[in-house]
Design goal:
The structure is a homodimer of 268-residue chains. Chain A has nine helices and eleven strands. The first copy, chain A, is α+β, with helices and mostly antiparallel strands and 268 residues long. Chain A has one domain: Jelly Rolls. A four-stranded antiparallel sheet of chain A has the order 2-6-4-5. A four-stranded antiparallel sheet of chain A has the order 8-9-11-10. In chain A, a hairpin with a 5-residue loop joins strand 4 and strand 5. The structure holds a DNA duplex (30 and 30 nucleotides).
Chain lengths: 268, 268
DNA sequence: CGCATACTTGAGCGTTCTCAATACAGGTGG
DNA sequence: CCACCTGTATTGAGAACGCTCAAGTATGCG
């Protein structure tokens, strides 16, 4: 039993050698977590058109607008955001490669949240019309997108709990745990360490703290020896202790994948 | 222009005379907000089995369990909850008649949130297997359930924003606005007033405040003349002012109903 | 080298918390 | 009808937490 255990996701379904580093991370994630066939994955990948670059700080999707595409983060970090009257800003979600920015626009007229690129991002686009076609002919894909919606919902609920009931330090530690697990599913971690290219300002909008207090909280966390954050690389020195401190459990991220599906099959 | 304007939802599709007071509130809500046919509504209503009574304070769905049914609130108030190690509790969602308690269990193995009855509730049950059958034969119903998921998601995001960026008083005022609109869709309001059967303890778990501070915040709100809360009836004396104070906009509740659907039709 | 952005630190204030006591309400049994 | 009991609401006081304002220090880029 190593003193510093490290997070480990099952990678049984992943064939690293067959994937170029430029592979769509959403596809990578679904290959790992869903039971979609290679066929389905390829159809989906083909439907994602033209990754285009969005510079940091600019909107991927403006607040209150409609859209006819789903935006998918290919590389870089983004966030859903909401501006309050007096200029306060809150991120209800942080988006990393493989995340859908605005799937809710598929059925909702307007997204009342904007999506902003926190770093320079490449974003690919999946037209609603095309996705509807695909979902019609491939029910498994439809289920996967619904599943993704549920997972997002679970993350959102967990953030609500954190903001409502956890202290600043716990909240931040919890976020670092969440990010390790989520980044691991798209192979953006290196052991217990990952690149965290956000500014403290941006982090503070995610955890609902002022930038000043975020800075101090970060120092407390560093001081406790649980993590370090130098340059923009976050390292978790003691995963078990950080998990324990922040009361983190990866359950809500549903990293174990889709329900195995006897019931679904039985029903069809 | 009345000084105290009152909230008004379009009720054009509702035929009040044809509905008994015992009608399934989920069906009532969908009749109002979705474009489901009367046929679809009836199929759905028929699939909701045996409303059963759950006493206040007991679990409708235990934390971390799986389930083979969707639980639907018929009457009474419930909440999704999450317990933290040290006993703190947070509600990521408040559930009123017509709400689905645990639709995510349809695709997720376990719900990591519990559902508790806040008052005595009647809960009806929709078996997953049956719902899957129905969704297979009635795509419109499938879309409506996905739409409901998105709306929940939007509410959850809005709560995140509130907890992260709004003051105690704004947060509480915002919740009162939200509840007015949501209750109006199931006809549980009387003008700008509604029964709010929750204890202050329960309210405090929804807005992430201590019970003591919730009490004081409530008094501030009462003192400002915007609302009153006597017995368990909440009255909003000045809807516009309360909306303005809490920066509330009903957009995120999507009370205007499903997207009109040209795109959906075009794709099929 | 200089400017802009990000990070850090200090100090004081305001909000929200905890602990603890008190008041009030509804329901039960004597 | 009253005494009591439990749960809920209210109040006070002090402490902790997180905020704002403001200054100062890195760091990176042109």
């Amino acid at each position: 039993m190593p003193v510093r255990s490290s997070i480990q996701l099952s990678r049984s379904r992943v064939r690293l050698t067959t994937r170029s580093p430029m592979t769509n991370p959403l596809i990578a994630r679904l290959r790992l977590l869903s039971s979609l066939s290679e066929d389905d994955l390829q159809i989906l990948e083909a439907a994602c058109t033209g990754p285009q670059t969005v510079p940091a700080h600019s909107d991927i999707q403006a607040e209150g607008r409609g859209t006819e595409h789903i935006h998918i983060v290919q590389s870089g970090w983004a966030a859903r955001y909401r501006l309050l009257r007096d200029g306060r800003r809150q991120f209800p979600a942080l988006l990393i490669p493989g995340d859908l920015c605005d799937i809710d626009a598929l059925l909702l007229n307007r997204t009342h949240f904007g999506v902003v690129a926190l770093t320079s991002c490449t974003i690919s686009v999946l037209p609603h019309a095309r996705l509807r076609e695909i979902m019609e002919s491939r029910p498994a894909i439809r289920d996967v997108f619904w599943w993704l919606t549920f997972v997002e919902n679970a993350i959102s609920a967990e953030w609500t709990v954190g903001l409502g009931a956890r202290s600043a330090e716990e909240r931040l530690a919890h976020l670092f745990c969440e990010l390790l697990v989520r980044l691991a599913t798209v192979e953006m971690t290196d052991g217990n360490s990952y690149a965290l290219p956000l500014t403290q300002d941006q982090l503070s909008d995610a955890v609902g703290l002022s930038a000043v207090h975020l800075n101090r909280t970060l120092q407390d966390l560093r001081g406790s020896g649980l993590i370090s954050l130098d340059g923009h690389r976050l390292t978790i020195h003691n995963w078990e202790a950080l998990k324990d401190f922040s009361d983190f459990s990866a359950d809500y991220l549903h990293v174990e994948g889709l329900r195995s599906g006897e019931n679904r099959r039985a029903a069809h």
